[in-house]
Amino acid sequence: MGPGNLGGVAGEQNPNDPRYDWLYGPSGDDQHGAGQPSVAQRGAGQQRDEQPGDEPTQLIRRDGSSAVPAPGAAAGEPEPTRVFRADGPPRGGTPAPPSPMRYAPPPGTRPPPVPSGPVRPRRRRRWWLRVVLALLVAWVLFLVVIPLWAWTKVTKVDAEPSSSRPPETPGTTYLLVGSDSRQGLTASQNRRLGTGGVTVDTGRTDTILMLHIPSGGGPTLLLSIPRDSFVNIPGYGQSKINAAYTIGGPKLLVKTVEANTSVRVDDYIEIGFGGFVKLVDAVGGITICPNQAIDDPKADLNVKKGCQHADGKTALGYSRSRAFPLGDIIRTEHQREVVNATAKKAASWQTVVLPWRYVKVNFSGAESIRVGTNVGPIALTRFAWAVAHINSGKRCVVPYSSLGAATSAGSAVIWDAVKARRLFAHIRKDDTSHIHCRAR
Questions:
Q1: How far is CA 329 from the centre of its chain?
Q2: How many percent of the chain have pLDDT more than 90?
Q3: Residue-wise pLDDT tens digits, 167-205
Q4: How far apart are CA 312 and CA 303, in angstroms?
Q5: How many Å is the maximal CA-CA distance in the chain?
Q6: What average pLDDT does the structure give for the chain?
Q7: What are 359-408's pLDDT values in tens digits?
Q8: Cα separations (Å) of 232 from 70, 120, 240, 257, 329?
Q9: By mean pLDDT, which of 43-57, 299-313, 353-367 is the weakest?
């Protein structure tokens, strides 16, 4: 079909019809340069230069249907396939609609992951939180390492009798002994502390305390055993209880206590004069509250009545003085008061937050005490905590019937056999709630 047929088609399809603007272009001289024929003029009166191998042009309406058969196609023949050039739009028509593009990763690579949710903005790193966390971890390590290190300085002593011991009972029973040992003190220190001016270890026990911690949650009991208590020392007959330590050391003292109370001692703790002074000074001193003024040259003590601050030297004299009508009984009250005040200061928050005080308390305590071979750091810590909080428990002295009784060992304290037996029975049963303490 020649170009004439195209003219016929142009005649059939009005070039001025706006539906065919895409094919013929808008009419009017304002859309074309001067002297340039319009698309309609070229289609109607001018022949298009056909090149060999060019595909035939096909006219497409705006609605997508074929307007006329392409030139060279007979009526009734099937419409030839529309061919679009790969290097541009089809001749005489609009560009082919672009096909959707899809991302194709290079061969051998994996596509980037698709986020499952909304992308959050990157937060600024809070460096100060890391610093605080590091300091907290370092402080916890400090609180753990120092006591363990100090524990290596603790002296162990064999205090367990080999035979004839009471059966084990519920709860935990500690025996705290304050000896008048001057070991490690110089002559000038003995004179300054008022300990008698001797440098030998005399091996006597000025303080004997029994601490019982019930297993059932009852009140803790801190019981004083007067040092002049007249009791039976196994293998040595009747004498003052402090003579047991002089004769056979910690082992015989524990055996004597168990034989006269029928209460098994679980853990043994001992502290000497010098260690006691160091420990009180390490906690910054304590508060004592004597009921009367005390002037006792033998204990190198001169204090007024009422609550007051006491350093280690004063606290030691306050614990040793017997310048009272009830001598040994009043002294046991002072000893319980001092032990409680010292433990309370050692367990206070100031000790934990002040590192120099924490170090001093741990090492002063460790270097000042001797413990039984079976006592561990946890048992010692439990003891100190119980003594520090004994105000919520009970503080007693062994019931006695007479003071200053004449015995073969001199003036002594005689226990009330019935009341003492009842008290120790409650301890064996782990029943401290029914113990009624005698103030003096």
A1: 44
A2: 45
A3: 998 999 999 998 876 555 555 555 555 555 444 445 678
A4: 14
A5: 158
A6: 78
A7: 999 998 888 899 999 999 999 999 999 999 998 889 999 999 988 888 88
A8: 137, 82, 8, 9, 20
A9: 43-57
pLDDT confidence bin for 206, thresholds 50/70/90: confident
Tokens of 40: 């309609």
Higher pLDDT, 344 or 29: 344
**Residues sharing a CB contact under 8 Å with residue 303, sequence separation 6 or more, in sequence order:** 288, 290, 293, 294, 310, 314, 318
Helix 355-368 vs helix 127-151: crossing angle, to nearest 10: 20
Of 156, 204, 202, 207, residue with least CA distance to 178 = 207
The pLDDT value given to residue 116: 67
Give me the residues paired with residue 414 across strands.
402
Residues with Cβ within 8 Å of residue 203, at least 6 apart in sequence: 179, 181, 245, 246, 249
Task: Confirm if 267 and 379 have CB atoms less than 8 A apart.
Answer: yes
CB-based contact 223:436 (threshold 8 Å):
no
CA-CA distance, 351 to 356, in Å (whole number)?
Answer: 8
Q: Which amino acid is it at 360?
A: K
Residues 226 and 332 sit within 8 Å (Cβ to Cβ): yes
Task: Tell me the C-alpha to C-alpha distance, in Å, between residue 299 and each of 44, 178, 229, 294.
Answer: 140, 15, 21, 10
DSSP 321-389: ---STTHHHHHHHHHHHHHHHHHHHHTSHHHHH-HHHHHHHHHHHHHHEEEETT--HHHHHHHHHHHHT
Please tell me the pTM assigned to this model. 0.67
Which residue do the tokens 């946890």 mark?
A: 378
Q: Is 11 helix (H, G, I), strand (E, B) or coil?
A: helix
Q: Which amino acid is at 162?
A: S
Measured CA to CA, the distance from residue 30 to residue 153 in angstroms comes to: 110
Distances (CA, A) of 147 to 344, 362, 371: 17, 6, 15
Under 8 Å between Cβ of 205 and 179: yes
Consecutive H or E run containing 27: none
